[in-house]
Amino acid sequence: MFSKNIIILLCVVCFMVKISTAGKGNIADEASISGTSTVDINLDELTTNQWQKIFEKYDTNNIGSISSKELQKLIFEVFHGFLTVRHAELYVELINLKQSREIGLKQLEKMKPIIGFLSQTDSTPKAKEDDTISSDNDVNTKTNPYKRLNPNQNEAILKKEFVESITSNYKIVFSSEEETLEILDLIGPIETWPIEWPKFEEILKMLSASYLVVSLYNVFCSMDKGGDGVIDANELKAWNDDQRETASREAATEEAAPKESATNESLIEIMKMLGLKDDSSIDFNKYMENLSDIYKQYSLSKTLK
């Protein structure tokens, strides 16, 4: 049986290869939840000068840094992605190797892989009846709560239902109903409740991308045994041992034994995936870059076929 963290990390890759584009965000002249006036742009092609222009627009105090709230607004308006203020602070803290939560131009550029994941909202895969790994481990459901929400699409969504469903289905994204309201603040006043399904669906897709990034963050933190924002080979091996121990406890029957073996093979693949060798280490930024590169390589191979 696969342990929870293995499921999350492997599923992230499965999620990525189902997305139709990689590393692209929507740059909006006037961003809105409906995505009007958007232009596709490859994040890899953004120059430092372009990043600086984006940064300066949100550096309202002209002090060379922006707040976590301003970063949240920047990602939403420029790249059509969402993260909570709390997670903005946590991601930046890791990017700064836990030395500070300062958000300057350098930190913004380093957030490129995170922004790439957050902006993947156009092609969130829909649930399928047979879209499961086993009876007790639906990988796609675990990593994409969008699949768990299946309201009657002909019915409008009341505000109370909106807040309750978002809070309950995206628990690792939102710590409270109050935090859930952050996305409504970004969208702007919704003059008329209830809202129709298409608008609700767009929000769900955005939140599923947020869920993906939080899952990646949580797995990184579980690997970072020393808590210093860097993973070395010894820490990853210790994490691997933890996963094996968890899998062994869960493998209570002979029928589960093949899955335990599969878990061990998956651990080896994860080490290769992260590009970590015995004499090397990676920080959160490199970790996210490596995961992003996996999909880019997959995308290129599919294009050449």
Q: Could you explain the architecture of this structure?
A:
The chain has 305 residues and is mainly alpha-helical. It is built from 13 helices and four strands. It has a two-stranded antiparallel sheet with strand order 1-2. Strands 3-4 form a two-stranded antiparallel sheet. 34% of the residues are buried.
Gross morphology is globular
Mean pLDDT: 75
Give the SSE string. HEEHHHHHHHHHEHHEH
DSSP helix fraction:
55-70%
Q: Give the total of domains.
A: 1
Low-confidence runs (pLDDT<50, min 5 residues)?
A: 15-39, 123-142
Spatial order of strands in the largest sheet = 1-2
**Gyration radius over CA:** 20 Å
Major beta sheet, specifics? 2 strands, antiparallel
How many beta-strand runs?
4
Could you tell me how far the N terminus lies from the C terminus, measured between alpha carbons in angstroms?
34 Å
Q: What fraction strand? A: 5-15%
Structural category is: mainly alpha
User: Helical region count?
Assistant: 13
Layout of SSEs?
Elements (H helix, E strand, L loop, with lengths): L3 H14 L6 E5 L9 E5 L5 H11 L9 H12 L5 H11 L9 H6 L1 H7 L20 H5 L15 H11 L7 H11 L9 H27 L6 E3 H18 L6 H18 L6 E3 H21 L1
Antiparallel strand pairs: 1-2, 3-4
Helix pairs in contact: 1-10, 3-4, 6-13, 11-12
Short structural summary:
This protein has 305 residues and is mostly helical. The chain is built from 13 helices and four strands.
Essential attributes:
single chain; 305 residues; mainly alpha; two-stranded antiparallel ribbon; two-stranded antiparallel sheet; 13 helices
